[in-house]
Amino acid sequence: MSKLNIAAEALDHAAQTATDIPQWSGADAFSVDEAYAVQALSIERRLARGERLAGYKMGLTSRAKMAQVGVDTVIWGRLTDAMRVAEGGEIARDRYIHPRAEPEIAFVMGRRLEGRVSPAEAMAAVDSVCVAIEIIDSRYKNFQFALGDVIADNTSAAGFVLGDRHSPTLDIGNRGMLLEVDGTVREIGSSAAILGHPARALVEASALLATSGLALQPGDIVLAGAATAAVPLSPGMSVRTVVEGLGAVHFRTV
Ligand code: 0L1
Ligand code: MG
Questions:
Q1: Are 25 and 167 within 8 A, CB to CB?
Q2: Where would you tag: which of 63, 116, 153, 196 has the fewest CB atoms within 10 A of its CB?
Q3: pLDDT higher than threshold 90 for residue 67
């Protein structure tokens, strides 16, 4: 088995068993291209088990997130249907290694979008926008990684919750966003923290996916990235995100 396949299997196994693994470092560290290849191989394993591709997530699209994890490049990962948590649903904390939640905005694509586009062209391909929460869970020890590690680990993608769908004509630039735990505000920010405007995350998604020969398809979900740092999850929490103008979404941990 190749080095990339061995890594994909290790990451997939770590996610399935909620067991952390060491980072790849030194001579074993992955280049960006190798890391995206590992990510694709690990997702193939999920698809072979019957999961379906649901879309993509953009990672590290805000300064708060870059500072939290010490990596300063926008990255992307893949979402599958099995990662979706129903609005108001619950997750078992022990199915994850060290999960965190972060407030996001999601796009649902109405049309195909590929390559370099303007923000207006990107938004014209969107069917709807929603408030969202992403659940991330690094498969690495102590939630620490270098750029190649986190890309290979599908950019820590572990789950997502979507709220009601709204028209893409709604203003989503500079909207207040917050994350509450048990009714207490834990993180507060603005959608402007997401690359200046969440539409720019969609522009980046389209351009970056094209470098891997991919395009956004109708029905794909795209998480734009978090507006704030992520909050660690423990059992018995009620987690809620509100985005001004888009409403709220929540889930619970047991
Ligand atoms: O969605 C994100 O911004 C996460 C990207 C990977 C870094 C992390 O695990 O926080
Ligand atoms: Mg995120």
A1: no
A2: 116
A3: no
Residue nearest to atom 10 of ligand 1 (CA): 69
Q: Which atom of ligand 1 is nearest to the CA of 230?
A: 10
Residue 101 in contact with ligand 1 by CB distance below 6 A: no
- pTM of model > 0.90: yes
For the CA of 57, the closest atom of ligand 1 is: 1
Going by pLDDT thresholds of 50, 70 and 90, the confidence category of residue 64 is: confident
User: Where residue 66 sits, what CATH number does that domain have?
Assistant: 3.90.850.10
Q: What SS3 string covers the chain? A: CCHHHHHHHHHHHHHHHCCCECCCCHHHCCCHHHHHHHHHHHHHHHHHCCCCEEEEEEECCCHHHHHHHCCCCCEEEEEEHHHECCCCCEECHHHCCCCEEEEEEEEEECCCECCCCCHHHHHHCEEEEEEEEEEECCCEHHHCCCHHHHHHCHHHEEEEEECCCECCCCCCCCCEEEEEECCEEEEEEEHHHCCCCHHHHHHHHHHHHHHCCCCECCCCEEECCCCCCCEECCCCCEEEEEECCCEEEEEEEC
Are residues 198 and 37 in contact, defined by beta-carbon separation less than 8 angstroms?
Answer: no
Nearest atom within ligand 1 for CA of residue 138 = 9
Percentage of the chain beyond pLDDT 90 is 93
Domain that holds residue 223: 3-253
**CB distance 154 to ligand 1 below 6 Å:** no
pLDDT band at residue 34 using 50, 70 and 90 as cut-offs: very high
Query: Residue range 110-133: average pLDDT?
Result: 98
Q: What's the token pair of residue 99?
A: 């999960």
